[in-house]
Amino acid sequence: MLKRNYFFGGMLLFFLLFSWGFAQQVETLPRIMLPSGTDDNEVRNVKAIYVGPKGEIYIGSAQNNRVQVFSSNGQFQRSIPSMRNDDIEVPHDIDISKDGKIIYVVDRDRDEVIKFDPQGVRIGKLGDDRLYDRPMSVSVSEKDMVYVADEDKECVFVFDQNGQPMGRLSGSFDKPIAVDVDFTGRVFVLDRDQKSIHVFAEDGSLLRQVPIAFGGQEIEKPVDLCVNPDGQVFVLDEDGKVFYFLSDYTTGKWSRPFGGNFEEPISIDVQGKDVCYVLDNNRGEETIWKFRMGGITEAPPPTDTGDGGGIIPSPPEREVIKHNIDSVAHIKVHDVFTQRREVVLSVFEPNGAIVPGLIAPNFAEFMVNGQRDSVLAAQTLFDNAPVDFVFLVGTESLNMKEIKTIREKITTEFLAKLDEARHRVAILTFADKPELVLPFEKSFSKQKEAFSKLVFNAEKAPIYDAFIEALSYLDSLDIENYPIFVLITNSDGKAGENKFANLKDYESKKGLPQVLAIGYENRKSADVSDRLKEISDLSGGFFYSTNKEDRINVLLRRAITLIRGEYMLKLSRLPESEGEMKLDISVDVDLDGNVFTSTYTYSPPTEEPFEPGKPGFFKKYGLILIIILGALLLLIIIIIIIARASAKPKGPLGEAILEVKSGDAPEKEYRLIKGTNKIGSDRDCTIVLPLDGISHKHAVIEYSGGKYELVDSESTNGTFVNRNRITRRILINNDVISIASVVDFIFKSG
User: Fold this and answer.
1) Which of 70, 105, 272, 530 has the fewest CB atoms within 10 Å around its CB?
2) 95-116: average pLDDT
């Protein structure tokens, strides 16, 4: 029995570990098509991507001889160098110092690392003219140490905060083509020819070399590497057109490669913890692909540094919801946990509503008692209120790709984020006529299945009819929580104004649930936006009119925020303080550079101050409490003693006994009753034998007509009398009873 448990336990552990390797869920986010060409605001023959701390995107463009800077949504902002008489031959890699004052650019063809200021003005070089042979990559640590990988010199150069050379990383490199540093200072170097990564501690000692392979198949042509703050690694395969992910370098277990839609993947970077950017050098259609690694959790503590820390497990960061908000009226700090380096706060709009969808880059600056800190992660906390959602879907003239996008977005951006224990979803379509597709259901799998079979296209989609039909369905149910309606359509069908009057009449009598509506203009239904806005305004909800690519994202993220509460921020170095703490928090809601700062003084909760001459609670009532607790304890002891003393076998005691001959039975002998004597490992047995190999209900000794009969209860390992396995047998004096060959008894009668 014990061996079997070990076997199944081992199989379960193997299955969990095996499954973990395939559990990495990768979500494709909207991609960014870069303007292609050689004009000042365009790119051509791209080589490098770097995502800045505020979400800005730096692209190394070889044919433009520039680093082109774009906003997080792909709008051109500026060029580096900013001077027209200056250029970069081949900008092959980019990184920025932690204070943002120095931009480092690797010029591969000129064999130099150039330094620019934030305005794009050249301010010098890193290293002298003859230092490099073929520099490929640059990375800056949290302490502003700079690392440069040189492919031809087969080394990584190290510079201090002032740009002074400190030496080289000692490693047996062949072609080191990329380098990156995590938050703890560990250095990761990608070797193209060895098809592996080398991991170094902050002091330069080699920790591990990890081959890049999955399922026995090694990477084809590694071209770039990036590392998130936890030291989790992304490696790009140019020929395989995929990227690899390594959650923990100490295990060497890579997740299944992901990608396949790239043309010429050339560079990779990661924003925050889990949003991966892949630069695709598809000439004429230069593209930034974005992915969210949905399975990333907390990395194991870095055993080589001994800090035992790491980013707390948190849901993946969300993309920012675009608001028409240019100010933050209030920031309220709820809790500060200095040991965990966490701050819990809320950010409010001017109307008092919480600002949803913020991620770490939105918190542009965080000052604690005048000292700069940085936000590593922004986790949105959920409250516990159950909320039901009713989806009303009625669209027309959509192609299969658009329908697939709607299904995927609803499933991954909304349904998968709901807690099945609290939130239910119902689905109604109003294609040619309103139809209930899915009654209120908590199961995500059933919700997903219903959406996968949903039919979207129809000749007409009567909004008002569908809404009234949905309300009638709701009225037929006995529910306490009024649901939120998510209305998705691009057509209002042939609904007349009288139908809206009916809706207004319903609202005046019973009230309406909140409606979140989304739609977009089309030639068949030019007034659809007006219809949707009427309904949302009547219910006190929200209406969005967006382009097709963004419509589902905006709506569902807004719906999700209605059941969200506070943000938990993970900071890099929150100082411990027992007194008041002054927090200066700058928030950029739209990541457009329009930053607003709120100052908050946090006072840790304190106990009620002691007032001299005023007796405390325990001083007044302590003696009474002690007497009451003592009496209760004494009463419990008396009850236990009486219960044990009064506990008797279920039947009169007989003269027969079972004397233990061998085995680890709890007692030396057991007196049998004149009735049913149950033997097994269960606690409710008459003779309890909690040993491996003995079944829960192993055997029974029945007393009848002055005789004791032993009956096996279909036990796994059998019951034996005098070494013979039995099913049923009358016992006689001195019979040897063996229970599963684990415990042997001698039957004594008279």
Assistant:
1) 530
2) 92
